[in-house]
Amino acid sequence: MCCDSKRRFLLLYATQKGQAKAIAEEISQQAGAHGLEADIHCLSEVDKYNLETEKDPVVIVISTTGTGEPPDTARKFVKKIQDTTLPPDHFAHLQYGLLGLGDSEYMFFCNGGKTVDRRLQELGAQHFYDTGLADDCVGLELVVDPWIDGLWLALKKALLLQKEKEGMNSVVDAVSSSLSAAPHVVHELNLCSEVQNLRLKDEGTRSSDVLSQNLDDINLVAPDRNTEPSLVHSVPPVSQSALNVPALPPEYIEVQFQDTCAENPHLSSLTSEGTTFEVPVTKAVQLTREDAIKTALLLELDISDTVFDYEPGDAFCVICPNNASEVEELLHILGLSEKGDDFVCVNVKQGTKKKGASRPQHIPERSTLKFILTWCLEIRAIPKKAFLRALVECTSDPGEKRRLQELCSRQGASDYTRFIRDSSVCFLDLLNAFPSCKPSLNLLIEHLPKLQARSYSVSSSNLYQPGKLCFVFNIVEFPACPARPVSRKGVCTGWLAELVAPLLHPSKNTLDTKGESSSTVKISIFPRPNNTFHLPADPSIPFMMVGPGTGISPFIGFLQHRQKLREQHTDWEFGETWLFFGCRHQDRDYLFKQLRSFLENGTLTHLKVCFSRDSSTAEVAPPKYVQDVIRLYAKDVARVLLKQRGYCYVCGDKKHMADGVSDAVVDILCMEMETDRLEAMKILAMLREEKRYLQDVWS
Prior knowledge:
One of its GO terms (biological process) is folic acid metabolic process. Its EC number is 1.16.1.8. By secondary structure, this protein is an alpha/beta fold. It folds into 3 domains: 7-164, Flavodoxin domain (Rossmann fold); 253-447, CATH 1.20.990.10; 543-697, Nucleotide-binding domain of ferredoxin-NADP reductase (FNR) module (Rossmann fold, 3-Layer(aba) Sandwich), CATH 3.40.50. Strands 1, 2, 3, 4, 5 and 6 form a 6-stranded parallel beta sheet that branches. The chain has a 6-stranded antiparallel beta sheet with strand order 15-12-19-10-11-16, with helices on one face. Strands 22-21-20-23-24 form a 5-stranded parallel beta sheet, with helices on both faces. Helix 8 (385-392) packs antiparallel against helix 9 (398-408). Residues 1-5, 181-224 and 506-517 have low confidence and may be disordered.
């Protein structure tokens, strides 16, 4: 039970990469200043809360992952509440407010939160506060900050109503006095990405949980009027503002170095996904020419000695480490270069003020320091504002301290978005930019999120290549910029490229290349099945595939599988197949030229390709992008999708391709059905609902 001076509410979160957890912890931190106490738990901790009997208000913060799924930590909860035998009044006693996190770059924006919200409503639960949907595409804080600001009055009103129902007059009086002392705030907000237009009137309730930092506290040299702002430098009005800085998060982790020797945990302990498999890489082929803008690699894994199973269209995850040189650089900055191989013991700090503090699940209780920094923490993570606030206390230079305060303040929100979030500035970049910042090791463990395994689409068929699993990826490049003095490669793609370098054969552009070596290179993987992005169960149904660049990856598996089925079942009827593929240059990055063989043996009925950067001498310029090619075959698209009830699969970049393909399909439906655009969009939505227009996209 909470002490009498507090008013309890249940705070639940479900997170994939740590965002929802960080926001929930911020809510928990602020609650005390409002006379409230948060009983905070992850949705997966079902033994620590019970919604069936919960009487107090419930606040839920939940993110979205994949193509609109709830995060892994919410899967069991969602499955439980989606039980169709539950009565419509199952949660009639429940009052809740929900904050969903998502990214409008993806089709099913905030679908994790929307799914939970919709189902709770269907089961009779009532909102005590409007649902907020925060968009990571424009900045979560644009919705998160005002949503939290309005939460406190809504909670107090909900608690007041709850206690009135229970007839606890003494508590009613206490909460009433709290309400009367607080300024009025309109909390029925239209919480969308335009939330910057909101004018919140509860500034009086914030003073106890933010630090107002005045310029008088720091000796700063007035900047030149013409100076442009940067990561390390601000200009008016930010540089001349008193700042509303978040409350300092309490430290809760204690790290102790030990003299004893032991073994580091096995990599399989780093994931809660079930079985992991350590498998050899048997082949590596560079599919692009050396002068291509992007470098694409194909890797073949030997899974014959495992029970790993997959279908074409599935994905799987690779457990990858941070870059070794970056780990060494971080150790050097922390002054721990000589301690990297020492074992450390990580525990909760005694007497911490953080409620419900526990050692992060992704941090082993005992391991070497280098193991934690290499395999457990995402040192490339973009620092959250709470982390910046904690780093302020570790910074000795007054100017650097002030700038970090600005970047985590409300007044510096646009600077944070521009110079940290949009510039993909990571923790290491930040330490290089602010050299007087010397954080403690426990601070890193408290604030850096778990190093996530990276997901890749399968590019093969177990039927076509038994015991083999192939996948294709571009080596991600982060070029140098003012905030990042050195270029970096993607955490996983850069590691894989370095790992398989001995396997790469000089001959390129063919799957038949024998890029093999006597030395055994192994990686750890685990399955990530896709429930929908699969071939039609009925082979007679026609389908279209749209996959420019590495978006073609799952379709190679589709075609291999279809070819084998045709060979094994000569009496079956097979529907027509279309593939729309595009790349920059025909001679540099046409990833799978053997697509012609699928065309020649009848597995592929139609192959349509385009090359966006090749010049043409033709009188009529050829189409540059797959969405342009699709428009040329409007009647066929309409016939396959509408008359023959076929499927359309789209894989690749969302912003620059998948949205363009969707627009092209809508235009085709408008034209071929002689209807308006709104009606055509409804038809496309219906195709999505029927799982006949399917996307596997990334931003």
